[in-house]
Specification:
Length: 126
């Protein structure tokens, strides 16, 4: 069984990979959606929730393929067995220029030994 430190590092690494794939945009939609559980929810302030793997793939296809970069930091991770939460700061750059910051709140679940996002919400600071 992994230690608490191992779980937290695995979650940080998984979320870093998630952001790197998100920045590839629409062409990586299926790979992006694979970071979520099959029944996951993705919510952005002011928009309807995207629920389920198929809907996540469709949403992912709408993401810009170039010019967007996310940076995540300040992870506050709580682990309870095969479930975890993470709250992190997100900085967004578009076309190489700083666009703004926000807060990502995740509920994660260990599925087949891998941490996946069961619910993600993003609230911009702007």
């Amino acid at each position: 069984m992994p230690s608490l430190a191992d779980d937290k590092e695995a979650i940080r690494e998984n979320l870093a990979r998630y952001i790197a794939v998100a920045d590839l945009g629409g062409p990586a939609a299926e790979e992006w959606a694979a970071f979520f559980t099959d029944d996951a929810e993705f919510r952005q302030q002011g928009a309807d929730a995207v629920v389920g793997r198929d809907a996540l793939v469709e949403f992912g296809r709408t993401m810009p393929a170039t010019g967007v970069r996310h940076m995540i930091s300040d992870h506050v991770i709580e682990v309870d067995g095969d479930e975890a939460t993470c709250v992190a700061t997100v900085a967004l750059f578009i076309g190489g220029k700083f666009f703004g910051t926000g807060r990502a709140s995740d509920e994660l679940r260990r599925v087949d030994g891998r941490w996946r996002i069961a619910s993600r919400s993003f609230a911009p600071d702007w």
